[in-house]
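Re: Re: token formats

Sure, here are both.
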Amino acid sequence: MRVTMIGTGYVGLVTGACFSEFGVDVTCVDKDVGKIERLERGEIPIFEPGLDQLVAKNKAAGRLTFTTDLARAVPGADAVFIAVGTPSRRGDGHADLSYVYAAAEEIGRALTGYAVVVTKSTVPVGTGREVARRIRAVAPQAQFDVASNPEFLREGAAISDFMRPDRVVIGTESDRARAVMRELYRPLYLIETPIVFTSLETSELIKYAANTFLATKITFINEMADLCEKVGADVHDVAKGIGLDGRIGRKFLHPGPGYGGSCFPKDTLALVKTAQDHGSPLRIVEAVVDINDKRKTAMAARIVDACGGSVAGKTIAVLGLTFKPNTDDMRDAPSLAILPPLLAAGARIKAYDPEGMHGEARQLLPGVEFCASAAEAMQGADAMALLTEWNEFRALDPARIRALLKTPIVIDLRNVYSPADMVAAGLDYRSIGRPVTAHGSDT
């Protein structure tokens, strides 16, 4: 089979590389000449564990190629995937579909035979129908069907998520398109992966519903953490106690500074706007969006409070900048809402992130000093705030932290440390939703 992947961002590059690992001939297309040149040299523009080896292997085997020429990449493809960005549109929060529609029209002009045009980008309900209309408008005689095939990839675990997914969702009403998509995903069918065939609209809504439900779980446990602090309960025990119920599940019940990344913030907002436009408002999701936005800024206030009510003239060591570990993605990362208010309040911020500070963080966080290690960031600081739970931070020795800091204050916004160990080391330790006694034990 032959596949053309329009877009070499996170979703497009991972999906294209994984399909090529299945033995499919994949051509990845992007208008960014510099990005394509880097990929041709074997340079990966994003950090995703294992992706560099996967790309190199399949590029060497001739199954994975890169180009800027969409018109030459589309003819002869069995499926053409649209995997371009759908950021929040400025001013109203709707998903910006301009890149999707531009790609659809270019595909229409390039089609020479039958192909399934697949929306892989996260798009609102109705987008697939509009993609078909636009292709038909520029190419009335074209032979094609449109399918929706949303991605469910977690950054940091995307390759394993693709190779062994919980499910594959495909929306189309064409038997011919179903046959193409079933053959494309045949390696997953052979390992008994559930493949859900449904309508275009249902498939598009499944993606938004899934992300929004997970964002709601995160927001729920964050609010429970706040309540735990007021009543003296332990949010981790609460999460365990409810998560053992099979109807609830354990995942996404870890408290923190709020969700971020490329999906949850824009997808929850886009779903809210879609529901409002159709006269069926989603009050729960509206509350989730509002609570999450306010939570990030509230984390800055926690750090100020831990420092005695003022950070003016104080040095804060910050460990972790990306929205989650094992990625260099800074999109809607909590650090972007937490650090600027601290800088504005007169703090000096020394930060370290294993991957984030090599990319966009330097442009997004002006005024922050970037360090070569966690130890360098903590040396002589008045407090340490942990924002992202990279594994190398989990193993830090509390006694070493105490020796490096000028003032023994630790604000752990990911609850990676043992309160007992931190207090035993002489640290003034603050975490999320866990009571800390004088002896450092939590309830």
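Second one below.
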Amino acid sequence: MKNFALIGVAGYIAPRHLRAIKDTGNRLVAAYDKFDSVGIMDSFFPDAAFFTEQELFDRHCTKLHRTGNAIDFVSICTPNYLHDAHMRYGLRLGADVICEKPLVLNPWNVDALKEVEKETGKKIYTILQLRLHQSIRDLKAKIEAGPKDKIYDVDLTYITSRGNWYYTSWKGDVRKSGGVATNIGVHFYDMLQWVFGKVIRNVVHVSSHDRVAGYLELEKARVRYFLSINADNLPENAVQGEKRTFRLINIDGEAFEFSEGFTELHTESYRDILSGGGFGIEDARMAINTVYEIRNAEPIGLNGDYHPLAKLPLAKHPFGW
């Protein structure tokens, strides 16, 4: 049984990590968050120590280390811009680290973290759960078994609607979240490159507070993508079904279905890591490079081969920005 500490336990994604720790037969001994709305801990680890101050959390974890009950893993569910600092903390505590995506916001942070891994002898793992989705794994096997010179035409549509709170939170601040492409899309860019190969060309057509649309030329695919947090972009059938999320991948005109099977992927990620597998820093590099380029690109507008939904009207920013 491994000892876990969790930073960011009040966050949206933290319950999936709590469940993964519990379902893999391990225990949470300490958790930290600035916010104290953490009643969810009662459902998993009511005896875990909880702190709202980093200094007290650090003192507790250090004491555990000195008394022979050291932290084995630090799980990180904090806002994107804090991942780098919290991963460094976990490594220097003497623990391995499991960090939510995106691992970092900037490509140069990847190399810096590798240096800290070398200094401490500990390892960083990231959650790239789509690589564990059975439908995605089957697709990768199919592409690898197909004609070596075939180039696939792919359309990716992902709409996960968010309310006005999004723009007030850290997620609405591109300096903290990395913007729409990074915050909601990084795992899709990772999946596409894992299946179809590295990026050869990266074009951004539209980039705003509520969406990003562009074109990626990969080794084995031409990808048009549209990512949005605007509920007005949802197709009618999704609205009628009272769903707030719509995801679709078309490959050579055929819909690729992968809407189910997401609920247990964090637990599968933990099992993979604990059994000696897992995805490390280098696995995250491709997608981090891609979203960094998208974030810093100059959009070319509705020119060239763009996703059909890219021409939908922009949402008015709730604060007039």
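The first strand starts at residue 3 and ends at 7. The chain has two domains: 3-126, 130-261+280-311.
- S.
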